[in-house]
């Protein structure tokens, strides 16, 4: 394989990247990669700083909102903003408490650290560096800390044959209500349990787990930043309506939807979502027959040069392999549909949010 790469002719005039130098080059590529990682953290800090400059009066926001849940979530978010400005320890000017934890979690994901090793590392660092008492000292605490940013996911057990989810009224079942397949990897555990519900002391390993990422916090982020909140209104306030098809807003389906649901279309900030799904090989090997499916939401409010960019995609579900769900895709879409139907309307999601630069409280709808 190495000989093939060394003798490969680089098609530079056809726009091909220099894969050989980037893969087998000197240590400069590693240094550049590290610098790129650092710059990404700086961008994240700048994003949080952008939020911080626009929300300084939490009491005013709390008075304008009647729902306790958004206020609590907002306060938790502002605690993170405060951590982004807090020194890791007294006298540390180079990195904040928030940046330090994000960097460690990024390294854990990138290099495949196990949870136990991450917890041990935090304990060693806590003995070596004068952290505050509120600093996470285990992977579990660090994960919960990051959940305040909406980065957490809900793990839901699924039937091995994709017939049902152990979710909702089936959450405590130990076998599939449709095909009877055991929930656990070892069928002996299910045979020894006479009850059809899950024992609280049971620590069995499920056959299949899929992940659900709540998309409502992601929509809130879009209106909590001055730049993105402006772009989310582009389709009504800034687009050029010259009769040409440049964006989904110019399409017949969009206009027909607006005529049918005039209450929805009257508010510019209401969100239009597109849903897409496709499979990919998590190992990057064509010889491995494994397919993981992701369900992605696309906010069509954004202009065409933004809505189809990867950073603006909202991953809602990750369906595990090794095979594709095929006709059972609707089973895995159930948590997403339930999230869309929070208040009982098919295509409405009600939630409170803040829009910068003015502190306001509004009701947001999502249309599919």
TrEMBL record:
InterPro entries in the record: Transposase_21
Superkingdom assignment: Eukaryota
Pfam families in alphabetical order: Transposase_21 (PF02992)
PANTHER family: OS08G0208400 PROTEIN, TNP2
Name under which the protein is recorded: Transposase
């Amino acid at each position: 394989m190495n000989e093939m790469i060394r003798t490969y002719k680089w098609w530079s005039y056809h726009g091909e990247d220099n894969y050989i130098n980037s893969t087998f080059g000197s240590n400069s590529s590693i240094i550049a990669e590290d610098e790129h990682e650092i710059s990404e953290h700086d961008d994240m800090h700048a994003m949080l700083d952008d939020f911080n400059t626009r929300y300084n009066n939490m009491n005013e926001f709390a008075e304008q909102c009647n729902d306790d849940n958004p206020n609590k979530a907002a306060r938790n978010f502002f605690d993170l903003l405060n951590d982004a400005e807090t020194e890791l320890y007294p006298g540390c000017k180079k990195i904040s408490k928030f940046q330090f934890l994000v960097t460690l979690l990024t390294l854990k994901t990138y290099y495949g650290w196990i949870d136990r090793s991450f917890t041990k590392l935090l304990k060693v660092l806590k003995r070596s560096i004068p952290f505050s008492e509120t600093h996470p000292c285990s992977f579990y605490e660090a994960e919960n800390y990051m959940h305040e940013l909406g980065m957490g996911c809900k793990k839901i057990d699924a039937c091995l044959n994709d017939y049902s989810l152990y979710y909702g009224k089936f959450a405590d079942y130990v076998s599939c209500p449709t095909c009877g397949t055991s929930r656990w990897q070892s069928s002996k555990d299910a045979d020894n349990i006479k009850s059809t519900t899950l024992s609280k002391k049971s620590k069995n390993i499920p056959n299949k787990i899929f992940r659900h990422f709540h998309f409502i916090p992601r929509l809130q982020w879009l209106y909590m930043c001055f730049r993105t909140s402006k772009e989310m209104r582009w389709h009504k306030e800034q687009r050029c309506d010259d009769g040409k098809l440049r964006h989904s807003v110019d399409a017949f389906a969009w206009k027909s939807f607006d005529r049918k649901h005039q209450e929805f279309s009257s508010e510019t900030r209401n969100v239009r979502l597109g849903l897409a799904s496709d499979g990919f090989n998590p190992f990057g090997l064509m010889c491995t027959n494994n397919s993981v499916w992701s369900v992605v939401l696309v906010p069509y409010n954004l202009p065409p040069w933004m809505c189809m960019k990867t950073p603006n995609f909202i991953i809602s579900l990750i369906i595990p392999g090794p095979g594709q769900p095929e006709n059972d895709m609707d089973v895995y879409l159930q948590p997403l549909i339930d999230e869309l139907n929070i208040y009982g309307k098919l295509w409405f999601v009600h939630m409170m949010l803040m829009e910068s630069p003015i502190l306001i409280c509004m009701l947001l709808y999502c249309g599919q």
